[in-house]
Specification:
It is built from 9 helices and 2 strands; from the N terminus they run H-H-H-H-H-E-E-H-H-H-H. By secondary structure, it is mostly helical. It has one domain. A two-stranded antiparallel ribbon has the order 1-2. It is rod-shaped, with a radius of gyration of 29 Å. The relative contact order is 0.17.
Length: about 300
């Protein structure tokens, strides 16, 4: 039994010392790519919410007096934002960056995620009653809508965003442990060479010691690499943290919803298409068609 364990350890020492540094570097590159993918996904949500808030404030400036239905105000603002952000851009492609962003939206399923986001929020608010006199907890509703979105909760529609982010957050520690582990493995691999040293032969002993020190210094380089990768990854995790961005998104969306709630007189869901301009009616029609297509793909 002991011999088997020793053989396994020797096998690990033999191969790990040669491949640990490439594995650390490969894992670091994958981690950076995953962090950037998460950042793109979360920032496209932020961009949409920013556009939504901008349209809400424009509407408040144009019509400051309370009037109409909260549900109608929200649907009009969200569908208009969706229409002008996706449908018009895809239709006209007026700027070069529009071509690039359209490809990015398809890769990251941003448009489908926004459609689900709008539909879920409208479903949440349709049963609210203005007559009760108490403002709903839009913070909780916004958290629920964004947190439960099945598209935005995955990177490229495949990998769980929260689990991937959790793994990326512990990678700095793993890089340090991996570097130290490589150093110990290098020392274990180098130590047996000292047994070949003949103290009666100074010249041969010097050669053995020199080779030993060279291998020890190389073994220490894995610890240095692990520390460097850990520092870089820690900065990336801090600067590109999706948690802070998610909080900003929810707060901004919650603030816009509260503004529309205070502007409204009721929450009547009937007659949502009455009093809309041609552009707003076109936006509602485009959104309803997008919802139908999304449900058809899911069926």
């Amino acid at each position: 039994m002991n011999a088997t364990i020793v053989d396994m350890i020797n096998l690990v020492v033999l191969y790990a010392t040669d491949y640990l540094m490439p594995v650390l570097l490969f894992g670091f590159v994958l981690a950076i790519i995953a962090r950037l993918l998460i950042t793109v996904t979360i920032h496209r949500q932020k961009r949409f919410v920013k556009e939504f808030c901008k349209r809400v404030h424009q509407d408040i400036m144009a019509n400051p007096e309370p009037h109409g239905s909260f549900y109608n105000h929200v649907k009009k603002a969200l569908t208009r934002t969706y229409f002008e952000t996706f449908e018009l851009r895809a239709r006209y492609k007026r700027r070069n960056e529009d071509h690039i962003m359209t490809v990015g939206d398809r890769v990251f399923l941003i448009q489908d995620g926004i459609i689900r986001l709008i539909d879920d929020f409208l479903q949440h608010i349709r049963y609210l009653r203005k007559e009760h006199g108490q403002q709903p907890d839009f913070q909780e509703i916004s958290n629920s809508v964004f947190g439960s979105n099945p598209i935005f909760n995955r990177v490229l529609g495949i990998f769980s965003l929260s689990r991937t982010n959790d793994v990326l957050n512990i990678l700095p520690s793993i890089f340090i442990v991996g570097g130290i582990f490589g150093t110990f493995l290098g020392i274990m691999k180098a130590l047996p060479e000292l047994t070949a040293m003949d103290i009666t032969n100074a010249e041969a002993s010097k050669i053995v010691i020199d080779n030993f020190l060279i291998k020890i210094s190389f073994a220490l380089s894995t610890s240095i690499l692990g520390i460097v990768l850990s520092i870089i990854m820690s900065f990336m995790n801090t600067l590109l943290s999706p948690t802070n961005t998610f909080v900003e998104i929810v707060d901004a969306f919650n603030s816009a919803a509260e503004i529309l709630w205070n502007k409204s007189e009721n929450n009547d869901t009937r007659g949502t298409d009455s009093g809309l301009s041609n552009r707003e009616s076109e936006a509602v029609d485009a959104f309803d068609l997008a919802i139908a297509n999304l449900h058809a793909r899911r069926a």
